[in-house]
Each structure stands twice: as C-alpha cells, then as structure tokens.
Amino acid sequence: MSRVVAPPITTRPAALTGGPVQASVVTGAASVLAVGALWLVTHYGPRQGALLLVGAALGLTLHHAVFGFTRAYRDLVTVGDGRGVRAQLLMLAVATVLFAPVLAAGEVFGVAVGGAVAPASVSVLVGAFVFAVGMQVAGGCGSGMLYHLGAGVTPMLATLVGFVAGAVLATFHMPFWWALPSLGEVSLAERLGWSGAVVLQLAVCALLALVSWVFERRRVGARPSLRAPVTGWRRVVQGPWPLGVGAVLLALLNLVTLVVAGTPWSITWAFALWGAKGLVAMGYDLSGVAFWSGEFQQSALAAPVFADVTSVMDLGLVLGALLGAGLAGRFAPRRRVPARRVAAAVLGGLLLGYGSRIAYGCNIGALFGGIASTSLHGWLWAAAALAGTPLGVRLRGLVGVERAHPPA
C-alpha cells in the first residue's frame, strides 16, 4: 500500500519581500501616535494615553512576528504545519504564569484587576465555530483584521464593516443565546487554586504542543525552515521576528494591559459599541434591547468613544501595524480590489462579528484572555474554533479568496 505524501510545509509568510524603510509612513504613524497619546492624556487621563501606546506595541508585534491565528489554524488542518499553533500555546503558557500572581492578588498599585471569565456555554461553542468559519473566509480574525488593515491590506476595510454589523446584530439576539445550556462561569483557579490551575494549564499546553509536533514530524517532507531574509539590527527594525519572540511579547503586553486597564486585552467589544453608537446617531432607540440595558453598556453608549478602553487600543493596534509596515517597507495598499474579494470580506466580517459576540469574545478576548485567566470558556472556544476551521477553509476556496488575494 503506497504512502500518501502531503505537501511540504513552506516558510512562514513573514516580511519576506520587505524593502527600504518608508520614512513618510513611519513618520506619519509615529506622529499620530505621539499626538494622539498626548491628546488622550489631556482629555481622558493618562490611562487612555498609555493604552493607545500599548495597543500600538501589540500591533507592531503582530506585524513584525507575522503572528496570526487564521493562518495558524488553516496550516494545521490543511498541511499539518503546527508552528503557528505551538507559538499560540507558548503565548498562553507564558500569559498564564504572568497573570496568576496579579489576578490572585486582585489588585495592582491599589487598582482592582479582574480576569476574562465568562460562561462555559453552548453559546461559546456555536459562536467560536462561526467565528472560525468567518476568519477563514475574511482572511483574518479580530486582531489579524486590524493589523492587516494598518499594514495596508485594503479588503480588511470591508471586513471591518461586516464585523461591526455582525457584532451589533448579535446584541439583538443575546437573550436567545443566554438561555442556552451553560455551566456558568467556571474558573479553574477557583476550583483548583491558583497553583493547581497554573500547573494544569501548563501541562495541557505542553501536551498539545507535543501532539502537534509529533503529527507534523510524521508528515513526509515536513522540515520547516524559519530562516529570515535579514539579520542583525535590520531584522529587529524591519522583521521578521521569530514566532517565539512574538508569543512572549504578546503575553507580556497583555499583562501590561491587565495592569493598566484592569482587564485583559480585548478586541471585539469595540465593534459592537461602534455599531450601536451608529444606530443611536441615526435615531434608533436601544432601550428595549436587553443587551444594551446593562449598566456597563449604558455607560459606554453615553460616553465618548475615546473613553472606551478597547476602542483606544484597537486604534493603537492599527497605528502600530502601520508603523511596522513602514519600517519593513511593505505599506502598499491596493486601490482596486476584486468585487468577489470584497463580498467575501463582508461575509467573513459578518460571521466574525456575530460569532465573537455570542462567544463572549474572539481569539484575543475569549481564547487568549480567557485561558490566561483560567476560564474554562477559553478552552471551549479554542476547541470549537479548531472544529470550525475545515469548513471555513472549504468556503474560503469556494468564494475565491486564495485567487483574489494572497493568503493571510
């Protein structure tokens, strides 16, 4: 019986075609960040100004490490390449260790902090599955969409529009999703103690990484190369950074977010808020929508958008990715995008927005923040997203994303 030979694993799509530093792009991005941070400090306090810069550091790291979730899942299920997933597991392991003492204390410098703990429910499973399909069709997840947008990937504008629409649409249906079977909020730290929860999560991350590595090595010709096109200071400035470096930096920056904002890094709440604010501006009354009747949601609707932590960090992320693209000489937005690609971007965005809202977050707020906070819903999110990836990959091919735009 002949042995099936899988396609060889290729190198990561890092900044392989970077050019000279684009001084105008770098200067513009840095200037907007500096002025924006000072303006936020003046009008909304030092926390908002600092979070804009933290968001920028996250965007730069995502760009230079080419740290994505969409491609990592797709490579795992299609060609058995587990490097991206193992980098995510490293990120989760480091974040678990970093978060534990802070969350156990409950405060930092006298300021209360709290983890991303949400119900472990059917809603999470369905939402993460839908989200996984959407991120393959759109070519990016929440963070991926923002950093690609900052780097000049034009179709992500259409994805953002769909994301906002899908997120705000889901808020109208939340009573239905809230009513589905749920285990409630399950914190492993509360059940096992912080030491037990940390040890368990580290063991799970190590086991999953080992399984991924063994699966990858059993494939014929699976000898990935991580060689970079540049070395020395140019690699630091222009990238690509090793995936492991990106994983550790993202974990550290999420810890900074937790300390400064009081909550872990989040992406998608802002999109629901922007959509709701748009409806209110058009005269729509949201008082009868259960989701928007909560105290937090009401306060967010009434406050300026720059007072919202997630909105400011999302903006910073885009600017940080723009800075990174300029440093790498890769900022080259397309003026013309095929209609089919735009349609796929909008469809993918709708699925991303809807799925993230009913799943209590995306790969950042639910998976990254949830697992780092030892919340069971984060692990459920990861499993459901992996299960939804093959369907998303199939739909990605049907809508012609691979032919219309380079894979993300």
Describe this structure in words.
- 68% of the residues lie in helices and 3% in strands.
- The chain has 408 residues and is an all-alpha fold.
- It has one domain (23-221, 245-404).
- Strands 1-2 form a two-stranded antiparallel ribbon. A two-stranded antiparallel sheet has the order 3-4.
- It is globular and about 55 Å long.
- Mean pLDDT is 89; it is low at 1-16, 222-230 and 403-407.
Distance between the termini: 36 Å
Q: How many alpha or pi helices? A: 18
Beta percentage is: under 5%
Q: What's the rounded overall pLDDT mean?
A: 89
Main sheet: strands, sense, barrel: 2 strands, antiparallel
Radius of gyration: 20 Å
* Uncertain residue segments: 1-16, 222-230, 403-407
Physical arrangement of strands within the biggest beta sheet: 1-2
Write the layout of secondary structure elements.
Layout: H1 23-44, H2 46-64, H3 70-79, H4 83-105, E1 107-108, E2 111-112, E3 119-121, H5 122-138, H6 142-150, H7 155-172, H8 174-178, E4 182-185, H9 188-217, H10 232-238, H11 243-261, H12 269-281, H13 295-302, H14 309-328, H15 339-358, H16 363-372, H17 376-398, H18 401-404
Antiparallel strand pairs: 1-2, 3-4
Helix pairs in contact: 1-2, 1-14, 2-6, 2-11, 2-14, 3-17, 4-9, 4-11, 5-15, 5-17, 6-7, 6-14, 7-12, 7-15, 16-17
Question: What does this entry show, briefly?
Answer:
The protein is mainly alpha-helical. It has 18 helices and four strands.
Can you give keywords for this protein?
408 residues; mainly alpha; two-stranded antiparallel ribbon; 18 helices; 4 strands; globular
